[in-house]
Amino acid sequence: MSKRAVILSTAVVFCFFVVIARLAGIMLLDHERLSKRARLQQSLKKDMEVARGVIYDRKGRLLAVNIECDSLYCEPRKISSPADAARTLSLYAGIEYADAVKALSSDKGFAWLKRKLDPVAAERIKGLEMDGIGFRPELKRVYPKAMLGSHVVGAVGVDNQPLEAVELSYDEELRRPGGAVVVFRDAGGRRLSDGTDTYIKGNDIVLTIDEALQFFVEAALDDAVTKWRPSHATAVVMDPYTGEILALVNRPAFDPNRPSAYAVSERRNRAITDLFEPGSTFKLVMAAAALEEGIVNPQTRFDCSKGSIKAGKWVIHDDHRQGVLTFTEVIQMSSNVGSVMTGFKLGPERLRRYAARLGFGEPTGIDLPGEAKGRISTGRSEADTAVLSIGYGVAVNAVQVLRAYSAVANGGVLVTPHVVSEVRTPEGDTVFSFKPETVRRAISERTAGILKEILISVTDGAGTAPMAAVDGNRVAGKTGTAKMHSPEGYSGDKYASTFVGFVPADNPKLAIIVVLYEPKGAHYGGTVSAPVFREIAEKSLAYLNVPREDLFTFAAAGGN
Amino acid sequence: MIYRGIEKMLSYFVKAILVVLIISGVFGLVYLRSSITAVEYRIGKLEEEKAKALREKKSLIAERASALSIQEVEVRGIRLAGLGFPDRKNFLYVKREGGRLYYASVRGEPIDEQKGGNP
After folding, report:
1. How close B20 comes to chain A (CA, Å)?
2. In what helix (H) or strand (E) does residue A47 lie, and over which residues does it extend?
3. Rounded CA gap, A225 and A1, in Å?
4. Pairing relationship of beta strands A43-47 and A191-192 according to DSSP bridges
5. Is A260 a catalytic residue?
């Protein structure tokens, strides 16, 4: 072999040796550090996108869904002319020029310009291909029925954080914990997918609300609000046997698609957060206690001819002077004098005991946030007993009153009001299903039956609420007209006008309460709220296909 | 001699096969790896398309829910088309009592089979 060949061979072998040594160094000695570096370059840790569960009404109609939106951001360091960019963006995306300039001129690497942009605006801005301007997809909560049922469904904020109602009280179910996944990408940043899902969906929720009933109640209450111009109003419809809330409406209300555009007072669920003195609707407690304790029967007579009764330092009047009334008539005519007389016979302790048994002074347990439990006065004086008998000295929320009347409707049992009937996984498996629970027996079945008949008399021609009567079905209920209390004392012209009852009285399907606060033009519950009750009841009974009871029946063959 | 010749030939043959196998194995691995990468690209692309379709679907579902709301029924069906919600005054209830058929109309107009009534 020539000398040159030897040198060449040696050089080649040496080169190979160097290459092999380098490879060995990379693969054996420096393996860990380099593979870690490669992993960092090729992989990306991505937060799992969490989609809140869908909210349905009791018939599967959508009340809250998610859509994907683009959020507009900027990288200020890449923007050459913030003023020009701000002008364009304020024109296309509706961003305030000053806000846009501020964001675009900042020294940060990233700044949001507008979250969850309108899709049309997003497409238009994308078409401009502006440097330093980008889009990031985000999930946006959408409420397709807008204001309908907003106080039950609730709302979320810009980061999908829960703000109100079911969205808040069932947040843990609606939004499961997300975590993160590792995705791989190539040198160009393109994602190499192994098929792993990068999003997670929360559980779906089925409400007890019925969209149609909710609409009827909202429409009826809106008409009443237009007519009587109250400061605020509430109406709730419940199944008296199960406690399922079928509709819950407050006015003012809010559009959950734009919660920040409304004041907190408009977003408040007044049906459970606002306490008021129930006035005559609370006479149910006095009546239930008196009947249950055997102090009176429906025919017991009371001399109410004086038109007033002295109770300690107070003199309590009837709105209209009555004569001698039976106990049934005391409730039918809503006589304060007769009620106070009965209250005196009962005494404060028994009155309070029955108020507590009927669920006053304790939370109803409704599965919505912010319920106020109310209060029953603890005074023992004659005046305290008298005012308690006619529904003063006690603070209640509308759902508490409705629950007490539901107890009469269902034969004496206190139920737990609720708005969620089922929680399901995204795959459709049931996680939780509400089973009607009896809190306790509040009154005997016999007393409930007697009370029902007395309450039916309220809506006949001689009672205080003939305007609550429904064509074709008997209605049991009670009016309430209570002076509103303020730090200065009782107002002379501000009232809470209430009607609460159930229908059909003989086989109750719906328990309904309507409360209008500070109505203008009239203030009696029988004038202001009872017609709203009738409107709701008539439409709801037709919708639920509840037959009329005044059927014209006759035999088919040789008909009578 | 002949036996040794055959043995030598076989040895070469086996070696050649081994070399071919090793080379094709290496290329196979490279091919497989690139195929996986290609599939991952394809999945990534399909996922992008799926995400777009899902995005569209979500928007359409929300739009449909809004269009099917009872408020829309009120506006389009009742105010524009002159339809109405069911009125119980116009309902006809049929009731069976004591094994015999009894008919009833809330309008107070009993349906009489003999007069051609059709409950």
Report:
1. 23
2. strand A43-47
3. 112
4. unpaired
5. no
- Alpha helices by DSSP H, chain B: 2-67, 70-72
How many CA atoms lie less than 13 Å away from A83 in the CB half-sphere? 0
**Least Cα separation, residue A452 to chain B (angstroms):** 24
Chain B residues whose CB is inside 8 A of the A145 CB are 65-66, 69, 71
- How far is A54 from A51, CA to CA, in rounded Å? 9
The answer to whether A477 and A405 have CB atoms below 8 angstroms apart is: yes
Other beta carbons less than 10 A from residue B94's beta carbon: 13
Q: Determine, for residues A471 and B88 on separate chains, whether the beta-carbon distance falls below 8 Å.
A: yes
Q: Are B55 and B49 in contact (CB under 8 A)?
A: no
Beta bridge partners of A233: A251, A516
Distances in whole angstroms, Cα of residue A212 to Cα of each of A3, A225, A532, B68, B73: 102, 20, 16, 11, 10
DSSP-assigned states of every residue in A75-131 = -GGG-S-HHHHHHHHHHHH---HHHHHHHHHSSSS-EEEESS--HHHHHHHHHH--T
Please give the domain boundaries of chain A with CATH numbers for all domains.
Answer: 76-131 (no CATH), 211-419+435-543 (3.40.710.10)
What are the mean pLDDT values of chain A's consecutive 10-residue runs (560 residues total)? 86 92 88 86 78 93 91 84 83 81 82 83 83 85 92 92 93 81 76 70 94 94 94 96 95 93 92 94 94 92 89 86 90 93 92 94 94 90 90 93 96 94 91 85 94 94 90 92 84 88 94 95 91 94 83 49
User: Tokens in use for A68?
Assistant: 């994907």
Catalytic residue among A280, A389, A406, A457: A280
Give the closest residue to A453 by CA, choosing from A472, A474, A468: A474
| C-alpha span between A115 and A134 (Å, rounded) | 12
Amino acid at A534: R
Any CB–CB contact under 8 A between B90 and chain A? Answer: no
Interface check A435 vs B, CB under 8 A: no
Instruction: Give the residue from A210, A221, A254, A229 showing the smallest Cα distance to A509.
Output: A210
What residue type is A394 in one-letter code?
V
Cα A484 to Cα A497: distance, rounded to the nearest angstrom: 10
For residue A86, the tally of other CB atoms under 10 A from its CB is: 24
Closest Cα to residue A360, out of A328, A316, A391, A327? A391
The per-residue DSSP string of A403-470 comes to: HHHHHHHTTSEEE--BSEEEEE-TTS-EEEE----EEEE-S-HHHHHHHHHHHHHHTSTTSS-GGG-B
Contacts of residue A186, Cβ cutoff 8 Å, sequence gap at least 6: A42, A192, B37
What is the rounded CA–CA span in Å between residue A66 and residue A216? 26
Q: Do the chains contact at B89 and A144, CB–CB below 8 Å?
A: no
Q: Check: pTM over 0.90? Answer yes or no.
A: no
Tell me the nearest-neighbour CA distance from B37 into chain A, angstroms.
7
Q: Is the ipTM of this complex over 0.90?
A: no
Angle, helices A82-93 vs A97-105, to 10°: value is 140
Residue where the block lists tokens 């928007």? B59
